[in-house]
UniProtKB/TrEMBL annotation:
Keywords: DNA replication, DNA-directed DNA polymerase, Nucleotidyltransferase, Transferase. SUPFAM superfamilies: P-loop containing nucleoside triphosphate hydrolases, post-AAA+ oligomerization domain-like. GO terms for molecular function: DNA binding; DNA-directed DNA polymerase activity. The keyword Thylakoid does not apply. This is DNA polymerase III subunit delta. Belongs to the DNA polymerase HolA subunit family. It comes from Actinacidiphila paucisporea. The keyword Nucleotidyltransferase applies. It is an enzyme of class 2 (transferase). One of its GO terms (cellular component) is DNA polymerase III complex. InterPro entries: DNA_pol3_clamp-load_cplx_C, DNA_pol3_delta-like_C, DNA_pol3_delta_N, DNA_polIII_delta, P-loop_NTPase.
Length: 348
């Protein structure tokens, strides 16, 4: 899935390129014969791929893009995909999780790297580390354009990411506001990037703590996050009351849908986590602050896997409604809140 974050300073369809995705090749040409994206941060890996695809289609709108998993890259597949075409069409071949490729597939790739074709751009996504290191070394030896996409485990990295997102979007953010945003949302880069883009789209001037509070942390009596907390614990009437109050005092609708989505996703993440893990370890694994782990543990009772799926669909429909897909977005939000609260009691 491509990130859909756009704004000033972003390339259409690419998303905003955070400083944390570091390009290490001297000649940073996205149309280089080989791009090697190394790391485990999904958002940055997706952006590395998307930058190449956008650059290729800027040259040739009919560029053929093949996105392959290790299972799809069987012996002979690469030779078939890279065989010369009568029409000399440009191609982008993306190989994900390259560290998991079979020995035969690695052999084919190494052979190709010795004589790549001019109209083909190969993108290898590799987690780094010892597994599949032979291919990693071969790609570097072949002169790959390398993009580092490290997993962000330190709070300072996430703060740097948020500042970079705002800078790329052409806006300033105060240090306090950046910290408040990370505290409210956690360490999921997709959600952080989405929140940065939403704030830039809906506000003007420097983003400060007051702006972040209005959207994501704000006044306890009228925030989307309180609505979400009530909904995911099945308290329908209270959640609807808070939602109507939030709407009456002018809380931004996208901020409310964001809070609902965050609440349901947190339930889903924790539900699939190993039982008995301590909050600190879960915080690192799931990208949530420890205090949020404790809160979600209290909220998760009554949820089933099907309930999470139903709730996520309801949030997606509400999000589309508030962005113009429905004549009455407030009603769409009320419907989503009711559905989420019912889903919170779906476990028999």
């Amino acid at each position: 899935m491509w990130p859909d974050t756009e704004g000033p300073g972003c390339h259409s369809g690419v998303g905003c390129w955070g400083a944390m995705a570091r390009k290490t090749a001297q000649d940073d040409d996205p149309l280089a014969a080989l791009t090697l994206a190394v790391g485990q941060e999904d958002l940055l890996l997706d952006r590395a791929v998307r930058e190449v695809v956008v650059a290729a289609r800027a040259v040739d709108a009919d560029t053929d893009v093949r996105d392959l998993t290790p299972e799809a890259l069987q012996p002979g597949t690469l030779a078939e995909l890279t065989s010369p075409s009568l029409f000399a069409e440009r191609k982008v071949i993306v190989v994900r999780n390259a560290q998991d490729l079979s020995a035969d597939a690695v052999k084919d790739l190494k052979a190709y790297l010795t004589a790549p074709y001019e109209e083909i751009t190969l993108v290898l996504l590799h987690a780094g580390g010892a597994k599949g290191k032979a291919l990693l070394d071969a790609a570097r030896k072949a002169g790959a354009r390398e993009v580092a996409c490290p997993k962000m485990t330190k709070p300072a990295d996430r703060l740097a990411f948020v500042r970079s997102e705002f800078r790329t979007l052409g806006r300033s953010v105060t240090p306090e506001a950046a910290q408040a945003l990370v505290d409210a949302i956690g360490s999921d880069l997709r959600e952080l990037a989405s929140a940065c883009a939403q704030l830039v789209a809906d506000t003007e001037g420097t983003v400060d703590v007051a702006v972040v509070a209005r959207y994501y942390t704000g006044r306890a009596e009228a925030t989307g996050f309180e609505v979400a907390d009530l909904a995911v614990t099945g308290r329908t009437a209270e959640a609807l009351e808070r939602l109507r109050w939030a709407l009456s005092v002018g809380q931004p609708l996208p901020g409310i849908t964001f809070a609902l989505a965050s609440g349901v996703r947190a339930i889903g993440k924790l539900a699939s986590a190993p039982r008995g893990a301590n909050p600190g370890q879960l915080a690192r694994d799931l990208g949530m602050p420890p205090w949020k782990i404790d809160r979600v543990r209290q909220q998760i009772r009554g949820w089933s896997a099907e309930g999470v799926s139903v709730a996520l669909r309801a949030v997606a429909e509400a999000d589309a409604a508030v962005k113009g897909a429905a004549a009455d977005p407030a009603y769409a939000l009320e419907k989503a809140v009711v559905t989420i609260a019912q889903a919170a009691r779906s476990r028999a």
